[in-house]
Specification:
This protein is of the alpha+beta class. The chain is 53% helix and 15% strand. The structure holds protoporphyrin IX containing FE and FE2/S2 (inorganic) cluster. The site of FE2/S2 (inorganic) cluster (FES) has 14 residues, from loops.
């Protein structure tokens, strides 16, 4: 908690400095004199002892925190934005060293006022610095804006301000660089007059050759030290990892069926990232957004209590006791988890309270129902019925896993599944059709296996439709689940019911077939009436789902690997 606050506050001080400094450069569009006038004003703050401690204290603390984070991170796999911010941040001291030496250190060691004409003349006329300095502006600005954006985007007021902030984020560095160029051109004229040159460099020329040599040689020493520190941290990190790997590990069972092994000490989120399993983490693992939350099944009792930081975040969303933040939880024993927010969730998923923590998303929905399940109970012991039903559900679950379906709801003799939560609607529809084919195939195999146990073979009805729905975590507080509600979900349920009327196994809406890029026009077409909807829904009725397997162009050959 303290570490996070320190990072934010020191970052904020640095941001204020950079903004005031870049604002200073924009005045170069008017004149070098204006730049210099504003510098004196600005210097009264930043060169005041309090300003100096704030600026350089923040710079040092911010840098040390970055090194600490590099050392502690179990994996360097991060989302793109975080990698960008991290890389730009580490690049900064290397680009900044010469500049600070040439300004503040110069001023302290040689005792002269470092002015804009002096700095701009040097930067503008030096082949290396005339490139490095604008690059520094872009790197600082990239690091700062990405950092601020990912910090503030979960605040409710931020979304409203984005258009203005976006404008500012583009304008300020652009104007600052133009100001620098315009001031640079002005120095081209100034240096044609030897007296002016003498005046600009009077402070520097007054220094002894030893002092000058000291300043000039300083950059190489600072850069070498920076490299040493960075390499040292990376080596220490490696040693730490080696030592840790010698200790035991824990395993995470994921609803996708994958079991991930992770070294003790690694968070669940880090383990997911290392295993390449997509997992929501809007704030990048800083316990701010809660989108990484998971419901822990097995192993919940063995987990250490949430830290103060995690508790605050969990309390804010009114989470049940078995809900934990994946980015903060470091299990020591095996656990099973259910992510409660889709991996592709954005900032809107953060801090949503109440039963439905949802947002609109395009999904493909499938309803599956076991036909005549009541008959199953006749003349059978309850034990047998439960056994058969569990066999059936095990097969359906295996199918979902093999075709990237997400189990959403269970209803006695049927279930609801969502497709495309992570992969998008088109892949979702294709996967749902593949799921239907696979379920039918598994059911046939199950019927053969159960043989004499069944008086007549088990049959299923499947309905598939797609469209916008409210997707989110819903259900009683102790066992919420990622599910969906909305008109399109009701339509999918209705299509499943229609399999009885059309005496077929699968009813697919024309929209879902089109989305999947599959031509089903050779199958009987119907216009289905759905309660609460004036327009009928165009559907296809398919008796044997195996007949469509050749129509689904498989963009993801691995998606059904378990079912081959
Ligand atoms: C074209 C780009 C830049 C120009 C022309 C420029 C110019 C100057 C000048 C004239 C000074 C000395 C006067 C003062 O203290 O304000 C200075 C100091 C400084 N600049 Fe820049 N600068 C540029 C970009 C940057 C960037 C991107 C950073 C990023 C953090 C930066 C950080 C600093 C720092 C830390 C000091 C020392 C401040 C102090 O100790 O009071 N500069 N710069
Ligand atoms: S990733 Fe944001 S709270 Fe865990």
């Amino acid at each position: 908690m303290f570490e996070r606050r320190l990072r934010s506050w020191t970052g904020l001080v640095l941001a204020v400095y950079v903004i005031s400094h870049l604002a200073n450069h924009t005045l170069g569009l008017l004149s070098l004199d204006m730049m210099e006038w504003f510098r004196r004003l600005n210097a009264s703050l930043w060169q005041h002892p309090v300003g100096t401690v704030a600026l350089y204290g923040s710079l040092l603390t911010h840098f040390l925190l970055a090194l600490w984070s590099l050392y502690r991170r179990r994996t360097l796999r991060m989302p793109l934005w975080e990698t960008t911010q991290f890389a730009l941040g580490l690049l900064l001291p290397f680009l900044l060293a010469a500049h600070v030496i040439g300004t503040r250190i110069n001023q302290i060691l040689l005792g002269f006022d470092v002015t804009y004409p002096y700095v701009v003349t040097i930067l503008w006329n030096d082949p290396r610095y005339s490139i490095q300095q604008p690059l520094l502006v872009l790197v600082v600005w990239g690091h700062l804006t990405v950092g601020l954006h990912f910090w503030l985007r979960i605040k409710s007021w931020y979304e409203r301000l984005v258009p203005y902030l976006y404008g500012l984020a583009v304008l300020l560095p652009a104007l600052a660089l133009l100001g620098f160029v315009r001031a640079g051109l002005e120095t081209d004229e100034l240096i044609t007059d030897p007296d002016t040159v003498r005046a600009i460099f009077a402070g520097w020329n007054a220094a002894t050759p030893e002092q000058q040599a000291l300043i000039i040689g300083l950059e190489a020493k600072v850069l070498a030290s920076l490299v040493l520190v960075l390499v040292g941290v990376l080596v220490a990190r490696q040693i730490r990892q080696l030592l840790r790997d010698r200790h035991s590990s824990y395993r995470i069972s994921h609803p996708s069926g994958q079991v991930v092994s992770a070294p003790i000490g690694q968070t669940i989120l880090e383990a997911m990232r290392a295993a390449g399993i997509p997992h929501a983490s809007v704030c990048g693992g800083r316990a701010r957004c809660t989108t990484c939350r998971v419901r822990v099944g097995d192993g919940i009792d063995d987990l250490a209590k949430p830290s103060a930081l995690e508790s605050v975040a969990l309390r804010r969303i009114g989470a049940a006791p078995n809900v934990r933040l994946a980015c903060q939880t470091r299990p020591r024993q095996d656990v099973s988890i259910t992510p409660l927010v889709p991996a592709r969730a954005d900032a809107r998923a953060a801090y949503r309270r109440g039963g439905v923590q949802g947002y609109e998303q395009q999904v493909a929905t499938m309803f599956i129902d076991l036909r005549g399940s009541t008959k199953l109970g006749e003349e059978r012991f309850p034990y047998d019925v439960v056994f058969i039903l569990n066999q059936f559900f095990a097969e359906m679950a295996a199918s979902l896993q093999a075709t990237r379906g997400h189990y959403a709801q269970f209803s006695g003799d049927g279930l609801m599944a969502l497709y495309g939560l992570e992969s998008g609607i088109e892949d979702g529809c294709r996967d749902a059709l593949k799921g239907a084919v696979d379920m039918n195939r598994r059911l046939t195999a199950l019927n053969e296996r159960l043989g004499v146990e069944l008086r007549e073979p088990l049959r299923i009805g499947i309905g598939i439709h797609c469209g916008e729905a409210i997707v989110g975590t819903m259900g009683p507080p102790s066992s919420p689940n990622l599910s969906a509600i909305g008109d399109n979900i009701n339509i999918a349920a209705r299509l499943e019911a229609l399999t009885k009327d059309y005496d077929c196994t699968l009813v697919v809406s024309a929209v879902a077939a089109q989305c999947a890029g599959v031509d089903l026009s050779r199958f009987p077409a119907h216009q289905a009436r759905v309660r609460g909807r004036d327009e009928p829904v165009d559907v296809y009725a398919i008796s044997d789902p195996a007949e469509i397997s050749g129509d689904i162009v498989d963009r993801h050959p691995t998606a059904m690997k378990d079912s081959q």
